[in-house]
């Protein structure tokens, strides 16, 4: 019951001063109407005398009556219902018992508006109906029933307008508040989406760094082993192997530096090198050849101009990871890299004649995540990925990536 009688919403000094100004303004308007209302309603003096009505002359009692129906409005926001009841009962009493037919309804109207604005909507309807009922009762019990009847429709219309105005303003405030909440929720969603994208980018960069490191260190290890075997019987070949290892290490450092540049791009302190694409597949063939694996490349059916850059880069990354796995784990003598463009998709296949796939669930040497990394990369682009033992022996990797992921039901395309 306390919440119905008193609102616990904090009010500042400015709020109290504003309500005081409202109350004083209503009092002044009531006093003015007390003098002018009858004269304006029935301007003919002879007709007023015939009806037994004299023009109102403000007396101390009449001014006190106006004060009782308006000054309690100072409490209208802190105590909306008690304020409405006080001013409404006071107005009805003075209107019906004192014959003050020209008494202003301004106090009850402001109180009805406040209840309709600050209270639940059901209470707004109750306030409007209660005020209209009091106006009707006051009109029927007034000593000057004829004149009171002339103002009855007008007063009921004023009460309805006040209640509807308060209701409309409350509805607008609710709408604006809901709009602000939606905007705040949208902002939080954007922040969450940005964090998600940052996390995905970090995973992608980590995968790229893993690919670069594994590929390059494997090549360096092979060239170093070759140099170790040849250093006594063929120093020139050993020096060539060491130079190749040094060049591979240098390229790996440059690529890792480029990845770090992506992370530091916000500082403007790094220049990011263009990402490598399938035009570097020849380097993978050379890399496999240097590791003792006879490799061939078939890409005559690949239309690089029709393939989006991000798909081309992903294909090269998958091929590089597959080549690295062949060198590190397969023990293969031959390998084939095939690249082609199909209607709506690009297809990559890397096959070897090595030992085939490890046992189900067994980790790769060194705890790498090559196969899963390739599978995840293809999945993010809405494609299909297969990896497993071949019927004739060996191991194969096949990736099919749509050229337009949005047409293939990519789960991330709408993000």
UniProtKB/TrEMBL annotation:
Listed A to Z, the keywords are: ATP-binding, Coiled coil, Kinase, Membrane, Nucleotide-binding, Phosphoprotein, Transferase, Transmembrane, Transmembrane helix, Two-component regulatory system
**Coiled-coil ranges per the record?**
169-196
- Name the residues that span the membrane: 20-43, 55-75, 81-112, 124-141, 147-169
Signal peptide segment: none
Q: Which reaction does it catalyse?
A: ATP + protein L-histidine = ADP + protein N-phospho-L-histidine
Q: Tell me the superkingdom of the source.
A: Bacteria
Gene Ontology molecular function, alphabetical:
kinase activity
Keyword field contains Transmembrane:
yes
Read off the InterPro entries from this record.
HATPase_C_sf (IPR036890), HATPase_dom (IPR003594), Sensor_HK_TwoCompSys (IPR050482), Sig_transdc_His_kin_sub3_dim/P (IPR011712)
Q: What is its EC number?
A: 2.7.13.3
**Domain annotation Signal transduction histidine kinase subgroup 3 dimerisation and phosphoacceptor: ranges:** 201-266
Query: Which enzyme type, at the first EC level?
Result: transferase
Q: Where is the Histidine kinase/HSP90-like ATPase domain?
A: 314-404
- PANTHER family per UniProt: NITRATE/NITRITE SENSOR PROTEIN NARX-RELATED, NITRATE_NITRITE SENSOR PROTEIN NARQ
Q: What is this protein called?
A: histidine kinase
Natural source organism? Adlercreutzia faecimuris
């Amino acid at each position: 019951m306390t919440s119905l009688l008193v609102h616990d919403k904090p009010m500042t000094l400015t709020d109290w001063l504003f309500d005081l100004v409202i109350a004083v303004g209503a009092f002044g308007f009531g006093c003015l109407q007390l003098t002018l209302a009858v004269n304006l309603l029935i301007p003919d003096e002879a007709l007023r005398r015939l009806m037994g009505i004299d023009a109102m002359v403000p007396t101390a009692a009449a001014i006190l009556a106006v004060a009782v129906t308006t000054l309690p409005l100072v409490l209208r926001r802190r105590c909306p219902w008690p304020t409405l009841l006080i001013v409404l009962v006071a107005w009805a009493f003075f209107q019906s018992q004192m014959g003050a037919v020209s008494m202003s309804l301004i106090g009850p109207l402001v109180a009805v508006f406040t209840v309709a604005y600050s209270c639940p909507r059901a209470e707004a309807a109750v306030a409007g109906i209660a005020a209209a009922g009091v106006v009707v009762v006051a009109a029927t019990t007034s000593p000057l029933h004829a004149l009171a009847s002339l103002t009855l429709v007008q007063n009921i219309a004023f009460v309805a307008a006040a209640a509807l105005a308060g209701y409309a303003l409350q509805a607008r405030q609710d709408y604006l508040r809901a709009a602000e909440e939606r905007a705040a929720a949208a902002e939080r969603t954007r922040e969450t989406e940005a964090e998600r994208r940052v996390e995905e980018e970090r995973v992608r960069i980590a995968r790229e760094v893993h690919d670069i490191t594994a590929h390059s260190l494997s090549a360096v290890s092979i060239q170093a082993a070759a140099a170790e075997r040849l250093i006594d019987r063929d120093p020139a070949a050993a020096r060539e192997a060491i130079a190749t290892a040094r060049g591979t290490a240098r390229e790996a450092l440059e690529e890792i530096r480029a990845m770090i540049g992506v992370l530091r791009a916000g500082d403007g302190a790094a220049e990011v090198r263009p990402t490598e694409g399938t035009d570097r597949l020849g380097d993978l063939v050379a890399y496999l050849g240097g590791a003792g694996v006879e490799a061939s490349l078939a890409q005559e059916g690949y239309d690089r101009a029709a393939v989006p850059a991000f798909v081309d880069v992903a294909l090269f990354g998958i091929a590089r990871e597959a080549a690295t796995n062949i060198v590190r784990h397969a023990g293969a003598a031959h390998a084939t890299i095939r690249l082609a463009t199909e209607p709506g998709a690009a297809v990559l296949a890397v096959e070897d004649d090595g030992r085939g796939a490890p046992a189900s669930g067994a980790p790769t040497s060194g705890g790498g995540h090559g196969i899963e990394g390739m599978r995840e990369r293809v999945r993010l682009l809405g494609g299909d990925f297969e990896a497993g033992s071949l019927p004739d022996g060996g191991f194969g990797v096949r990736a099919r990536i749509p050229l337009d992921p949005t047409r293939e039901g990519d789960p991330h395309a709408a993000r």
